[in-house]
Specification:
alpha+beta; BirA Bifunctional Protein, domain 2; Rossmann fold; 2 domains; 7-stranded mixed beta sheet; 5-stranded mixed beta sheet; 17 helices; globular; glycine-tRNA ligase activity; Gly-tRNA_synthase/POLG2; bis(5'-nucleosyl)-tetraphosphatase (asymmetrical) activity
């Protein structure tokens, strides 16, 4: 990673994202809606490319993974079976002086991170472990006392005048019927996984899948986050990319390790540096989990979770089987070498991989953003300046190539349009004629376009163009007839898939 990123502040990323059409505050003309964001013209292209990359890596590269798209609204019993109604809570604490509300676990995690940054990793680990113990035991008084013992102060009031810690359910609810006021509430799903679990047998039978197999899904989820901050890292409306992998009981440990390694490899293949990624094992396991680990990325605000890998056991299917009274079992005809008989009927265990599309977007944007000092000209005319560039992997860049006529005359605009028309079926392009060529290069650097194609006088003579490369700023002369294969090779998902 370029050292320039080390000093990049989140505010730089936020400002760049707005200025260049990546992310806008939702309803900004009405002063916005907290923790809700809209993706702009370049942002939606980058996000869609990341989603498509994930989807194809799951469903095309694995012959035992298929996809679904489940509804956002589900029967209320779904969330009773999953435990969300009873236990989907965050521990909240208020500061009596500032009147500000915080997640108690986040305050303690940030304190632990301070210890780690001060080279006192043992103390940070001990604090995290104690927090996990207290939360697992639902000892909220103990959590408050831990905050007091650590002398954690409110960032606004700078005081430690804290209330008691209490649990707050994060699910949004709405009326389930337009005509029946007594109808039970319907919830906006807080996760996408349950849509997969309730469709387990539908998918297994219709797609003729054999254990082990996976079901992938990309979809929106909603959480009534009280403390939502750090730009799009934590939002109330967000998108998840999940794959639930159903395995034979007793093999879940092996598959957990397999997917743990595979998912980290995916992020590295996308271009996230190994030094900016780490595994973080959970100290407090969810009620359903046998093992859990996060893949964390080092954002400008520190290492934070980007993806979770969980060994969920048979909790979900068993719970739905018990409440629905419908069997969620799979008949395994393979022979168990220990008994010499078929494995028979069982409820499969599950290994989950779940990555936040918005968090992957933010990590990709942070990693790509760079301010570098470049030198232009030669001899006495040599100058230096700062260039801001997004070094996005060409496969996920919003725009693959920009086409520029050198001047707006002599048939160059018409030739540029001809090239645009020939390539637009294969790539997302822009055609721009305004301003000096240097300014046009700069605009494309700012949105991460890997190639700029310049039509000049020589083009009209021999059908060759100059291709300028974003990262090196080097220029290559080539025939127009080679552009499709040249760009296609660089921007193909194959460049990422071949590393997996």
């Amino acid at each position: 990673m370029n050292p320039a990123l080390e000093t990049t502040q989140l505010k730089d990323i936020v400002a760049h994202a707005k200025e260049y059409g990546f992310v806008f505050q939702s309803s900004e003309i009405y002063d916005g809606l907290a923790a809700v964001y809209d993706y702009g013209p370049n942002g939606v292209e980058l996000k869609n490319n990341l989603k498509r990359l994930w989807w194809e890596s799951m469903t095309q590269l694995h012959d035992n993974v298929v996809g679904i798209d489940a509804a956002i609204f589900m029967a209320p019993q779904t969330w009773e079976a999953s435990g969300h109604i009873a236990g989907f809570n965050d521990p909240l604490i208020d500061n009596l002086d500032s009147k500000k509300r915080y997640r108690a676990d986040v305050l303690l995690e940030e304190k632990a991170a301070e210890y780690e940054n001060a080279s006192d990793a043992a103390r940070g680990a001990a604090l995290t472990a104690e927090m996990g113990r207290l939360l697992t035991a639902n000892d909220l008084a103990g959590v408050r006392q831990l905050i007091l013992n650590e002398k954690i102060l409110c960032p606004v009031s700078k005081t430690g005048n804290w209330t008691e810690v209490r649990q707050f359910n994060l699910m949004f609810s709405t009326q389930g019927s337009a005509v029946d006021s007594d109808a039970p509430p319907v919830y906006l799903r807080p996760e996408t996984a349950q849509g997969i679990f309730v469709n387990f047998l539908n998918v297994q039978k219709s797609a003729r899948m054999k254990v082990p197999f996976g079901i992938a899904q990309i979809g929106k989820a909603f959480r009534n986050e009280i403390v939502a901050r750090q730009f799009i890292f934590r939002m109330r409306e967000f998108e998840q990319m999940e794959m639930q992998f159903f395995v034979r009981p007793g093999t879940e440990g092996e598959w957990y390790d397999t997917w743990k390694a595979a998912r980290r490899k995916f992020h590295e293949a996308l271009g996230l540096p190994a030094a900016k990624l780490r595994f973080h094992d959970h100290d407090k396991l969810a009620h359903y989990a046998k093992a859990a680990v996060d893949i964390e990325y080092e954002f400008p605000f520190g290492f934070k979770e980007m993806e979770g890998i969980h060994s969920r056991g048979d909790f979900d299917l068993t719970q739905h089987q018990a409440l629905s009274k419908k069997k969620q079992q799979y008949f395994d005809a393979d022979i168990d070498p220990a008994t010499g008989k078929a494995y028979g009927n069982y409820v499969p265990f599950v290994v989950e991989t779940s990555v936040g599309a918005d968090r992957l977007f933010l990590a990709t944007l942070c990693n790509a953003y760079e301010e570098e000092t470049i030198t232009e000209g030669e001899g006495d005319a040599q100058t230096t300046k700062t260039r801001t560039v997004l070094r996005l992997h060409p496969a996920v860049a919003p725009v693959k190539a920009a086409i520029f006529p050198l001047v707006r005359k002599d048939g160059m605009p018409e030739k540029a349009q001809e090239i645009f028309n020939a390539l637009k079926f294969d790539f997302r392009l822009v055609l721009e004629e305004r301003d000096a060529i240097g300014k046009r290069y700069t605009r494309q650097d700012l949105i991460g376009t890997p190639f700029c194609i310049v039509v000049d006088g020589q083009t009209l003579e021999d059908n060759t163009v100059t291709v300028r490369h974003r990262d090196s700023r080097e220029q290559t002369r080539m025939p127009i007839s080679e552009l499709k294969s040249y760009i296609g090779e660089a921007v193909s998902f194959k460049r990422i898939f071949e590393q997996l």
